[in-house]
Automatic annotation (TrEMBL):
Keywords: GTP-binding, Nucleotide-binding, Repeat, Ribosome biogenesis. Residues 3-168, 182-355 form the EngA-type G domain. This is GTPase Der. One of its GO terms (biological process) is ribosome biogenesis. HAMAP family: GTPase_Der. It comes from Hydrogenophaga crocea. GO terms for molecular function: GTP binding; ribosome binding.
């Protein structure tokens, strides 16, 4: 699984700038989950071949008074620290040491979580002079960096990853499930009925929803078989035995959901008919699409809504989740075990589509037929020329098209090609990525 790094520090030390530097974005991939403040974001980062999950937090005041906004921000920061494998404690090299820095350092020392102390905004300062006072915090070596300019960021990440306990070597692949086993993740907001659905599948109520900080790394996998097909369920709800249950919905782990999606072949995105399609649902769906995972949509508690509510949620699906129009949609009741059988058929179909093999001759012929039917529009005085296509990967399927001036192909034409390829290969329930490779002109420099 991807290691998780939390950025912690008092306000205005440059945590968000560092987050953007690490993720290569200006915002998080996933945000605005229930109970999360606007200052807590999740994103994907990379150092070398190693991918990481980075959590940005708001200004941290461990001893903030009850009822204040800083109290709520501190609560979210504690959750981020609990979900993480290593903490990057950011201080301000220009503003110097503060009493609040001491409070945060005391909190982190008590936790015993692996920690890296980073002095940000150190660009242009004399080496060593900008960090010496931060040794008072008792957290060991102080790393000077500049998040705005990228100085020292890579070495900081490498040192942080060295402190992650049990992290496998960079070139060691994630262990695969045995051949023929479909890894299935059930994703969705808290209380949409994920564990009720799993219990209905397994035929007994031996699993219940449970989650708490500190259990994020315990990936729970439930093996089961249906009609001769083996599955491995990747838990996103935190499955435990009945005796271990207590109410902890407010401690829903975003990291666990992101990791489960990354490790799955197929994701079943479960929605709640009584609440409609929320921003949280759209964020999770967006992350599934970005991860390239095959997906099946299921609306749970369909029996609990009237005709008007059903019409409303169908409209919300069309608008908020329009980017998942390739996915099958099912209306179910996990509690009453209604509509569950067709879901399995769609899961198998989505997995088969994600792993579909497409021959180069057939792809090239389909490409040529598509161009003959509708040529790409002219751009810049010329028309893009598409010569041949081949498959560039699976899960998700990738089609690589070669030709000239393909950087001028508009998005609308790419969608046209995607529709033609999907229909020809019966690709249902999986994203399809089309990449263009433009040939270099050998006479360009002459």
């Amino acid at each position: 699984m991807k290691p998780v790094i939390a950025l912690v520090g008092r306000p205005n030390v440059g945590k968000s700038t560092l987050f953007n530097r690490l993720t290569g974005t200006r915002d998080a991939i996933v945000a605005d989950f229930a109970g999360l403040t606007r200052d807590r974001h999740y994103g994907n980062g990379r150092v070398g071949k190693r991918e990481v999950i980075v959590i940005d937090t708001g200004g941290f005041e461990p001893d903030a008074g009850e009822g204040s906004i800083y109290r709520e921000m501190a609560k979210q920061t504690r959750q981020a620290v609990a979900e993480s494998d290593v903490v990057i404690f950011v201080v301000d090299a220009r503003a110097g040491l503060s009493a609040q820095d001491h409070d945060i350092a005391n909190y982190l020392r008590r936790l015993g979580k692996p920690c890296v102390l980073v002095a940000n905004k150190a660009e242009g300062m004399t080496s060593g002079a900008q960090t010496v006072e931060f040794f008072e915090l008792g957290l060991g070596e102080v790393l000077p960096v500049s998040a705005a300019h990228g100085q020292g960021v890579r070495s900081m990440l490498e040192i942080a990853l060295e402190r992650v306990p049990g992290l496998p070597p960079e070139d060691e692949d994630e262990p695969e499930a045995e051949p023929g086993v479909i890894r299935l993740a059930v994703a969705g907001r808290p209380n949409v009925g994920k564990s009720t659905l799993i219990n209905a599948w397994l035929g007994e109520e031996r699993l219940v929803a449970f989650d708490m900080p500190g259990t994020t790394r315990d990936a729970i996998k439930v093996p089961f078989e249906r009609n001769g097909q083996k599955f491995e369920l990747i838990d996103t709800a935190g499955l435990r035995r009945k005796g271990k249950v207590f109410e902890a919905i407010e401690k829903f782990s975003v990291v666990k959901t992101l990791q489960a999606i990354e490790n799955a072949h197929v994701v079943l995105l479960l929605l709640d008919a009584t609440q409609g399609v929320t921003d949280q649902d759209a964020h999770i769906a967006g992350y599934i699409l970005e991860s390239g995972r095959a997906v099946v949509l299921a609306i749970n508690k369909w029996d609990a809504v009237d005709a008007y509510q059903r019409e409303q949620i169908e409209r919300q699906i069309e608008t908020r989740l329009a980017f998942l129009k390739f996915a099958s949609l099912h209306l179910i009741s996990a509690r009453k075990r209604q509509g569950l059988a067709p879901v399995w058929k769609s899961i198998a179909q989505a997995h088969a589509s994600a792993m579909r093999k497409m021959s180069t001759p057939l792809l090239t012929r389909l490409l040529q037929e598509s161009v003959a039917f509708q040529a790409p529009p002219r751009s810049g005085g010329g028309r893009p020329k598409m010569r041949y296509a081949h498959q560039g990967g699976m899960n998700p399927p990738v089609i690589v098209i070669h030709g000239n001036a393909l950087d001028r192909v508009p998005d609308a034409y790419t969608r046209f090609l995607e529709g033609r390829f999907r229909k020809a290969f019966d690709l249902v329930g999986t994203p399809l990525r089309i990449e263009y490779r433009t040939s270099e002109n050998p006479f360009k420099e002459m």
